[in-house]
Amino acid sequence: MVTLQDVAKAAGVSIATASWAINDSKDARIPQETRQRVRKVAVSLGYRQNALARGLARGQSDSIGFISDGVATSPFAGQVIRGAQAEAWQNGKILLVVDTNGDKRIEKETFAFMMERQVEGIVYSTWVHHAVEPPKELRQVNSVLVNCFDRRRQYPAVVPNEIQGGRSATEILLKAGHRRIAFVNDIDSSPAAIGRLEGYRQALSSYGVQFDPSTIIRAPSNQEGGYRSIEAVLATKATAVFCHNDRMAMGLYDALHERGLKVPDDISIVGFDNQEVISAHLHPALTTVALPQYELGVLGIRTLLESTEQVKPQTDETSQTKRKIIHVTCPIIVRDSVFPSNQVIHH
């Protein structure tokens, strides 16, 4: 391997001069002719710079850390990493990805690893949208939270717009003429459950439909939860159902089929998340609202690369400055599970 010493010797300069020339150090007083000669020699010898040494010389490493608790291994949230990687690459940066699987020991070692490599910032992401207690190590470097937020808002955060998503899901059914719409929501309280319910209520209000608490059904947010909600759903006399996620919708499909009821002929269904392995392969294919996974990754990196002053982490826990939370639009994915109501009321 060709070393910096080899380059310096061939160019007839000191190792320090060779380093300054190759790293284009602005503070070093080196004649332009010398800089060009050293670089030509380096190219002719096939010299390759040490990335860590170059980062030390330039004061930046061109690398960004991405730490998650399961995004990389979850079946659909890996799109967050794809978006982050694409945006980082477009800005000349490399993404260093570590999935800790929620192991605090691994997380602590990961921070040490990234600090040693002088990452220019860290994206800290979770695969479930929720409030987090940010690791204290985030204070050492510019940091952004993705798909999560801290209640004190010490860090910028990029999260799905759950209220808009719930409103959009309900409006799909309202625009099809449905006015008796059940909402099968998660039994546990979360930003998704709270936000999607608020969006549901906003949509009803905008169409002049009075909110009826009896149309809200709570169930575990999985296939079994959707399946077991069938009796409560039928009791509401609803012509359409908005399900908290696609897995619940899949369970409801099964329960309806067992009772000889068809989607969407007898009852229309809208899901949430757009887990394509589910939603695109149900029969009929499920109309749903997608989580903007790819966009979360893109905007996480974009926010991180903003001015240092804007993204600088809060080191004083008593600070009253609140960092911004970016709410990313959840897009509608129209498929075949919604049918116009036989009692269409034009809005």
UniProtKB/TrEMBL annotation:
Keywords: DNA-binding, Repressor, Transcription, Transcription regulation. InterPro entries: HTH_LacI, LacI/GalR-like_sensor, Lambda_DNA-bd_dom_sf, Peripla_BP_I. The keyword Phosphoprotein does not apply. The keyword Translocase does not apply. It holds the Pfam family LacI. It comes from the Bacteria. One of its GO terms (molecular function) is transcription cis-regulatory region binding. Residues 2-58 form the HTH lacI-type domain. This is Substrate-binding domain-containing protein.
